[in-house]
TrEMBL record:
Name this protein carries in UniProt: Type IV toxin-antitoxin system AbiEi family antitoxin domain-containing protein
Segments forming domain AbiEi antitoxin N-terminal: 7-44
Signal sequence annotation: none
Entries under InterPro entries matching the protein: AbiEi_N, DUF559
Organism: Leucobacter rhizosphaerae
Residues of the DUF559 domain: 188-265
Length: 276
């Protein structure tokens, strides 16, 4: 097998030893490097030009993509990524990986030496230790909602500390991290909060008590979607529900105003089955 074919089967980058196992000779690799058809990000690694730059960076630093960086790559909800987060594979320092956050320690699951992306289980463990509680909870619930794992599987793993508490707090019902954050910030209420409740043939983001509905709009709340949402809001009002509709930005950047709206509605009894 030629080197370019072998590399194309491993996302464009592989260890030299893995290529040798596929029958790619050192001479063929050297010839490809000299011709500019291959690149060597670090000793022991060979890649195709144009390979995913994050994979190239991980190989260059002798590390593995992990924590919120790999969470984002897995399609999980990540509010803000301050810098690349890497898991240490070999002795790595901040000097050799400038601008990166390095996560030390033995990973929960052993790592294949030929991969550059951490397993979901390791990613969630680092997220639990690295991120603020509500951000970590949002990422964990995103993994559950996407069915990448289950609470029963996570509970069987030897997580400790914050990760163990996240297992107890997480649910698979939040469609986005913003919903996880909303529920977390109101968990002190002594009122039932149901995520993704079905009312009048539609799902609502939250049903607080018996009659208070909270909808959180994302970037798709425009055009036909907005018309459909407005029609559903009207039906809810006609059926005795009180609807509060807020935007993602408000939850993340103007929480006091959102909480004030919810508290004002509760104070007026809009959450009750029959208002006083």
């Amino acid at each position: 097998m030629d080197s370019r074919t072998a590399l194309s089967r491993s996302r464009g980058i592989a260890r030299s030893a893995a290529l040798a196992e596929l029958g790619v000779s050192r001479h063929a690799i050297d010839r490809g490097l000299a011709a500019g058809l291959l690149v060597r990000p670090r000793r022991g690694w060979i890649a195709l030009p144009g390979t995913d730059p994050e994979l190239l960076s991980a190989a260059e630093h002798g590390a593995i993509l992990s924590c919120i960086t790999q969470a984002r790559r897995l399609g999980l909800w990540v509010h803000r990524e301050d810098r690349p987060h890497l898991g240490s594979r070999t002795p790595v320092t901040h000097t050799s990986a400038p601008g990166c956050k390095i996560h030390w320690g033995t990973p929960l699951l052993p790592r294949d030496p030929h991969v550059l992306e951490d397993s979901l289980e390791n990613v969630l463990g680092y997220v639990a230790a690295c991120q603020p509680w509500e951000s970590a909870l949002a990422i964990w619930e995103s993994a559950l909602n996407k069915r990448l794992t289950t609470l029963s599987r996570l509970a069987r793993l030897p997580y400790t500390g914050s990760a163990r508490r996240l297992i107890q707090a997480s649910t698979p019902f939040s469609d986005s991290g913003v919903e996880s954050i909303f529920r977390t910030r109101l968990r002190w209420l002594r009122i039932r909060i149901v995520s993704q409740a079905w009312i009048d043939g539609h799902r609502v983001d939250f049903l607080i008590g018996e009659r208070l509905v909270v909808q959180i709009d994302g970037g798709t709340h425009v055009g036909p979607q907005r018309t459909s949402d407005n029609q559903h809001d009207a039906r809810l009002h006609l059926n005795g529900y009180h609807v509060i509709r807020v935007g993602t930005w408000q939850v993340l950047e103007d929480w006091p105003a959102v909480q004030s709206s919810v508290m004002s509605a509760i104070a007026q009894g809009f959450h009750l089955g029959s208002r006083p």
